[in-house]
Amino acid sequence: GNLMRSEAASRADSQHFADTMELKWHKRSKILCSPEGSHFASQNKEAKSSPRSGEQILLCKMGFASQTRRIKMLELIPASAIIAIVVIALIVIFLAVGYVKAPPDMAFIISGIKKKSKIVIGKAAIRIPFFERLDKLNLRLIPIDVKTSNAVPTADYININVDATVNVKISNEPEKLRLAAENFLNKNTEYIAGVAREVLEGNVREIVGKMKLEEMVSDRQKFATLVKENAEPDLAAMGLDIISFNVQNFVDGNEVIENLGIDNIVKIKKAAAIARAESERDIKVAQAAADKES
Fold first, then answer.
1. pTM above 0.90, yes or no
2. In the chain, what are the helix, strand and coil shares in percent, each to the nearest 5?
3. Rounded CA separation 4/2 (Å)
4. DSSP E strands: which ranges in the chain?
5. CB-based burial label for 283 (10 Å; 0-12, 13-18, 19+)
6. What's the distance, CA 176 to chain centroid?
7. Cα(34)–Cα(14) distance, rounded to whole angstroms?
8. What residues contact residue 223 under an 8 Å CB cut-off, 6+ apart?
9. Contacts (Cβ under 8 Å, ≥6 apart) of 177
10. What is the pLDDT of residues 182-213, one digit of tens each?
11. How far apart are CA 117 and CA 97, in angstroms?
12. Per-residue pLDDT tens for 141-197?
């Protein structure tokens, strides 16, 4: 009787101990193992008589021993080291997300925290995620074909049309670049070209009205320089620079330019004929003088 009561008490103690500990079931044999590797119970009654039960108990012991070593190793790591690892990881993530690198033909504008935006061209920078935004401006050349929409009177009251090709671009200068950001941020190249074309056409008209036709036709470079100098302040106020201005053609509806050409041709022919006649005369005079001396 005492032996039976002792066995019952032992089973109750074992059950209570198993319920209070973190237990692990082996997936294959479903043998219950404690952290110390003791073999308490099995869902499969035949597991007790199985010849592999000894191996399973050994595997249990080895697994829990390995787990215990890992826990002890983690306990040995000081809290300051864990904090340092977390901080380093956060810094790496921050750099990976916020790192930006601008190519030479693109301006990166970083804004958000500071009142004055940061401009990056051809170099790297760090953007603070969630607090700063990144915008881009294209710094490539923008070719524009400028044509007067209708005839413009010159200083000598001759109506003409002007055709010119112009190259403009967003300026690299910080102040102009900020103006360009205000006017053209997130706008496509066609929009920028359209705005610049209107400004340039207005300046072409202004210079045409100040010059005579013959002067413009004979000195196109002077006309182009005057238009460029006149348009630069207007475009600079938008953040744009004029890179080149070339006149392609002057056209009038009354063939005045053609007649100017004919007139020049006649003058050239006349001058050539006079020069030839004078040359022939000098030759005859020289020959007569030589014959008289002989």
1. no
2. 55, 20, 25
3. 5
4. 24-25, 31-33, 39-42, 99-101, 106-111, 118-121, 124-126, 133-138, 142-147, 152-153, 159-170, 240-252
5. exposed
6. 18
7. 11
8. 207, 211, 215, 216, 247
9. 107, 109, 119, 137, 170, 171, 239
10. 999 888 999 999 999 999 999 999 999 999 98
11. 19
12. 999 999 998 889 999 888 999 999 999 999 989 899 999 999 998 889 999 999 999
Are 41 and 35 in contact by the 8 Å Cβ rule? The answer is no
Cross-strand bridge partners of residue 153: 159
216's tokens: 């413009």
Q: Dihedrals φ, ψ of 31, to 5°?
A: -90, 130
Q: How far is CA 18 from CA 27, 36, 56, 71, in A?
A: 18, 11, 18, 21
Per DSSP, the three-state class of 138 is strand
CA-nearest of 208, 199, 216, 220 to 144 is: 199
Strand partners, 159: 153
